[in-house]
Amino acid sequence: MKKWKRSARLVDMTRQLLDQPHRLISLSAFADRYQAAKSSISEDLAIIHETFREEGTGLLETVSGAAGGVRYLPIANRENATKLSRQLCAQLENPDRILPGGYLYLSDLLGDDRLVREIGRIWATVFSGRGADVVVTVETKGIPLAYATASHLGLPVAIVRRDSRITEGSVVTINTVSGSSKRLGSLSLARRSFPEGARVLIVDDFMKAGGTVQGMIDLMGEFRAEVIGIGIMAESQVDERLVENTVSLATVTDVDVKNRKIAVELGNLFTQGGFFDGTNPD
C-alpha cells in the first residue's frame, strides 16, 4: 500500500469530509487509508478544522471514545449568510422579474448552482440541531433547494407532487386551498417516502400567504411526521398568513406592476435573533 505525502493526504481528507457531511469517520479509518499514525491524522484534522473555521464554511466535530471519530458540519456564518441574502434581495428587485398577475420569475435563481448550494448551507446551519430525518419540498421549483439542503445535512429528500403518479406506488393525497386565490388543489406523497413518525424539514422557494406550505404541513400529519422547521428562500409580506414560524432569507414587501417596481428586504432570519444557533427566536 502506498505511502501518502502529507499534502496529498490533506487534500484527500478534505474531500472525504466534504463529500460526507454529518457522517462520523473514525481516526482508525483515516490512519489505515493513509498508513499514518493517529497523532499525525489528528494534526492534519486540526489544520483542516482551522481552515474551515477561518473561511466560515464549517467545522469539524470530534467524538471521543472507542466508537468516536470526526464529522464535518457545514456551517454558514452570519456574515456570509447576510452577504448572500443581500445579493439575493438585489436580484429579486430587478423589475424584469415581474410576470402577469404580479408573480415573480425565479427560475434563473433556482438554476444558479452556487446560489442554491449556499442557501442549502444556510438552512443546514439554521436547522442542524433539530434532528431532521428527511427534507421535504413540493414540485417543482423547490426541488433544487431541497437537494442542496439535504446534501449539507446528509439526509434524503421527499418530493410532494401536485398530481399522483403510477411510479410513486401507493400515495397519500389531501385537498388544499390557496391562501391568496382560494383555488382548490391537491398534494400527494408516496407512502414509501419515509417512515411514519419521521422528523421533517420543509424547504420551498417562495411563499405568499402560505397555502402550499400549510398543505405540506397537513400532509405530514397524515404520516404522523413532526415538522421541525420551514425554510423559505423568499416570502411575500401579506396581512393574513396561514403559516407562522417560517425562516426566510428575503421578504418581498411590494410588487408594483404598474410602475414596474419591486421592494425587497432581508428576511426574518436576520431581523429576528436565535436562528443561527438552531433555535427559534423568542
From TrEMBL:
<comment type="subunit">
    <text>Homodimer.</text>
</comment>
<dbReference type="InterPro" id="IPR036388">
    <property type="entry name" value="WH-like_DNA-bd_sf"/>
</dbReference>
<keyword id="KW-0804">Transcription</keyword>
<dbReference type="InterPro" id="IPR050118">
    <property type="entry name" value="Pur/Pyrimidine_PRTase"/>
</dbReference>
<dbReference type="InterPro" id="IPR029057">
    <property type="entry name" value="PRTase-like"/>
</dbReference>
<dbReference type="GO" id="GO:0003677">
    <property type="term" value="F:DNA binding"/>
</dbReference>
<dbReference type="InterPro" id="IPR010078">
    <property type="entry name" value="PurR_Bsub"/>
</dbReference>
<dbReference type="GO" id="GO:0045892">
    <property type="term" value="P:negative regulation of DNA-templated transcription"/>
</dbReference>
<dbReference type="InterPro" id="IPR036390">
    <property type="entry name" value="WH_DNA-bd_sf"/>
</dbReference>
<dbReference type="Pfam" id="PF09182">
    <property type="entry name" value="PuR_N"/>
</dbReference>
<protein>
    <submittedName>
        <fullName>Purine operon repressor, PurR</fullName>
    </submittedName>
</protein>
<keyword id="KW-0805">Transcription regulation</keyword>
<keyword id="KW-0238">DNA-binding</keyword>
<dbReference type="InterPro" id="IPR000836">
    <property type="entry name" value="PRTase_dom"/>
</dbReference>
<dbReference type="Pfam" id="PF00156">
    <property type="entry name" value="Pribosyltran"/>
</dbReference>
<dbReference type="InterPro" id="IPR015265">
    <property type="entry name" value="PuR_N"/>
</dbReference>
<feature type="domain" description="Phosphoribosyltransferase">
    <location>
        <begin position="115"/>
        <end position="245"/>
    </location>
</feature>
<feature type="domain" description="Bacterial purine repressor N-terminal">
    <location>
        <begin position="5"/>
        <end position="74"/>
    </location>
</feature>
<dbReference type="GO" id="GO:0045982">
    <property type="term" value="P:negative regulation of purine nucleobase metabolic process"/>
</dbReference>
<comment type="similarity">
    <text>Belongs to the purine/pyrimidine phosphoribosyltransferase family. PurR subfamily.</text>
</comment>
